[in-house]
């Protein structure tokens, strides 16, 4: 009996020993700071990093902050513009690659390249392509008689420019997830459909899409979460001093500005918590809605 | 009949190839343009109509990256922090994952859910106090600030726990009879079996660490402590229109991750598929 207890105690000792670094890291660098953020969101910050209790003043300020509201609208426009198209395109590419085509792994490599490329470098080459005076894009447009816009400094085009780059850099990642989803669909369904004389389009809409819906759900949830947190793309492609920054900045970009440029950390903490709640809300709604369209075997 | 069908099939394949090639050109085009531009003179890059193929390979652009900026320093900062984070996460996460998956102990479920819950929180929600902590510890503008918070991760613990859960129970029974403790069972038996999971985690960690911008921007404003991402972005600020220089710098910054991807391609794909289906 005491032998068993001793063994148990030993097991516990090793268990706590082995989880210690991860638990400590999580507590010190994530959980405790998160709790502090709650506290900070109720503080008002002075000029030199001093702060006082401010009650709900930050949350009241948010309601009347039209720049924040515009940032939220920008984030939604960016998300609605990039996520559905990005997902549709990556499904198409995955389906085409899944047709046992020759050179499949070469195509996969090429489509995946942007995913492993540093976002700052991605932004740099696209800034160059979009350059209104010497950029390749406007040159190509001019050969077919179109006078290209000033992509990154015209408020009407800056957002669409960002959306294009965002789709370009995410197709490869989602494509790989969809490919693995497609490989999980049993061949029998397609054989049966073939016997019934269903053509490829019918097969795509009646078999592939429903069977792929759990994967589509997963990709949609994760894409929306990361799209709501867009920051680097705006920081590197538009920049803090650009005249169009108000038309393109996301909530996280505005958060960054308040926290680390304007040094208004209390207000920024409040923004970050509201963003957290929004993301959580959007994710919960998606889980609720999934019963309507996600097909589990 | 069957001849007609096979003909139809081969024209179908041709169309698929054409679509995929056009798509691939759109994906690779910017990279090719990056390479071509990196060899141009400043004059060539601003000519109208544009020069496509530079008259000569101007390697000087690459040299200029090193002379006009502490580029080697950026490189070292990124490289060393990435290596530390990969080593830390593979070791700490696999150890924790083993304990969570294989040992019963009081508080296990609570602690695991706590670690997991961090995955649902956007990093902005804890980044300000984390920054204040770095300031209080005196870690601002040090590589420590870039490294230490990334030594463990919820994602890695979760990913590897899935791995350890799927292994049969007989494995540790035999080892326990031999008098091994759990740490020995972990590193002698289980860690080698979870190699593919660890490689996947190492790849993800390397990629995130190498490419991360927001955290370095916040904690390290001194050029000597900046990683490549923040360094390149400051390069852009100062040499905004010198695109040959910027492209040469970018190419050197992205080359290691592209090389790693090409070498470990299958592990990349497996790793993503793993998180995509089990996550």
List keywords for this structure.
heterodimer, A: 297 residues, mainly alpha, MetI-like fold, 2 domains, two-stranded antiparallel sheet, 2 strands, 76% helix, B: 279 residues, 15 helices
Q: Would you kindly provide a written description of the structure presented here, covering whatever features stand out?
A:
The complex is a heterodimer of chains A (297) and B (279). With 297 residues, chain A is mostly helical. Chain A has 13 helices and two strands. Chain A folds into two domains: 2-40, no CATH class; 59-293, MetI-like (MetI-like fold, Orthogonal Bundle). Chain A has a two-stranded antiparallel sheet with strand order 1-2. In chain A, β1 (43-45) and β2 (51-53) form a beta hairpin. The mean pLDDT of chain A is 92. By secondary structure, chain B is mainly alpha-helical. Chain B folds into two domains: 2-60, no CATH class; 70-238, MetI-like fold (Orthogonal Bundle), CATH 1.10.3720.10. In chain B, α4 (71-102) crosses α10 (182-193), α9 packs antiparallel against α10 and α11 (195-211) packs across α15 (265-278). Chains A and B meet through α1, α3, α4, α5 and α7 of A and α1, α4, α5, α6 and α10 of B.
Concise description?
The complex is a heterodimer of chains A (297) and B (279). With 297 residues, chain A is an all-alpha fold.
Topology (elements, then pairings):
The complex is a heterodimer of chains A (297) and B (279).
Chain A: H1 2-40, E1 43-45, E2 51-53, H2 57-64, H3 66-97, H4 104-112, H5 119-130, H6 136-143, H7 155-183, H8 187-195, H9 200-228, H10 232-237, H11 245-248, H12 251-261, H13 265-293
Chain B: H1 2-38, H2 42-45, H3 60-68, H4 71-102, H5 108-117, H6 124-137, H7 143-147, H8 154-165, H9 170-177, H10 182-193, H11 195-211, H12 214-219, H13 228-238, H14 243-263, H15 265-278
Helix pairs in contact in B: 1-14, 3-14, 4-8, 4-10, 4-11, 9-10, 11-15, 13-14
